[in-house]
């Protein structure tokens, strides 16, 4: 499946939205990504996860892990595609931790997955957790790289779709100047 086909699927499922959006940062954008919309369609989620797994099929992945919340279902489906265990890490006081009895032994081969990467902060926290546990990191796989490739984890990284989203300061937003209604997509 090529990136154009992935983009069409993500638009069809409501992940990629076009309009005039107020982002958490306070900036405005003409595009908004809500990856959780994909997860309501198991058949599409499974296809996306299989594509995320594909570059790592020969790497003997034992565990797939994602940061909670965005990476939980994606980790599960990607692990299914790889025949691996699925875990998720939770953020506690600014650090990612394994909770709920999850365990990674030193030397286990782990793939990190995430729905979307903007700054890469959550993924980097998971990588730091894995390094502290002496796991073997085989790579990172994401659905959408919002940084258009500018985030570097120092590991083999695969994104199904790379996007450079336009961001505007509210004071000079062309969408505001054009009179487009502002939407708050997280409400």
Set down the secondary structure blueprint.
Blueprint: H1 3-12, E1 16-22, E2 28-33, H2 42-53, E3 63-67, H3 72-82, E4 85-92, E5 95-97, E6 109-117, H4 121-132, E7 136-145, E8 157-162, H5 174-177
Helix pairs in contact: 2-3
Folded structure, characterized:
This protein is of the alpha/beta class and 187 residues long. 26% of the residues lie in helices and 29% in strands. The model has no long low-confidence stretch (mean pLDDT 93). The chain is globular and about 55 Å long. It starts with a helix and ends in a 10-residue tail after the last helix. The protein has a single domain, classed as Rossmann fold. It has a six-stranded mixed beta sheet, with helices on both faces.
Distance between the termini: 32 Å
Q: Please state roughly what percent of the residues sit in beta strands, choosing from under 5%, 5-15%, 15-25%, 25-35%, 35-45% or over 45%.
A: 25-35%
Query: Can you count the helices?
Result: 5
Radius of gyration: 17 Å
CATH class designation: Alpha Beta
What proportion of the residues is helical, as a percent range?
25-40%
- The strand order across the widest sheet is 5-4-3-6-7-8
Features:
187 residues; globular; single chain; 6-stranded mixed sheet; two-stranded antiparallel sheet; 26% helix; Rossmann fold; 8 strands; alpha/beta
Give a quick precis of the structure.
The chain is α/β, with parallel strands linked by helices.
């Amino acid at each position: 499946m090529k990136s154009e086909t992935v983009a069409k699927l993500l638009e069809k499922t409501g992940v990629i939205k076009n309009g005039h959006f107020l982002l958490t940062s306070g900036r405005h954008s003409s595009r908004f990504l809500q990856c959780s919309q994909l997860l309501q369609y198991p058949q599409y989620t499974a296809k996306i996860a299989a594509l995320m797994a594909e570059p790592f099929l020969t790497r003997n992945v034992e565990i797939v892990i994602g940061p909670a919340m965005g990476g939980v279902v994606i980790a599960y489906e990607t692990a299914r595609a790889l025949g691996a265990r699925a875990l998720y890490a939770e953020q506690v006081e600014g650090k990612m931790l394994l909770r709920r009895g999850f365990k990674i032994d030193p030397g286990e081969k782990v793939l990190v997955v995430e729905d979307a990467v903007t700054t890469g902060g959550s993924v980097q926290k998971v990588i730091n957790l894995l390094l502290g546990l002496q796991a073997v990191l085989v790579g990172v796989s994401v659905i959408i790289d919002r940084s258009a490739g500018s985030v570097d984890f120092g590991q083999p990284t695969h994104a199904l779709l790379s996007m450079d989203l336009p961001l505007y300061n509210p004071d000079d937003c062309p969408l505001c100047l054009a009179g487009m209604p502002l939407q708050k997509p997280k409400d």
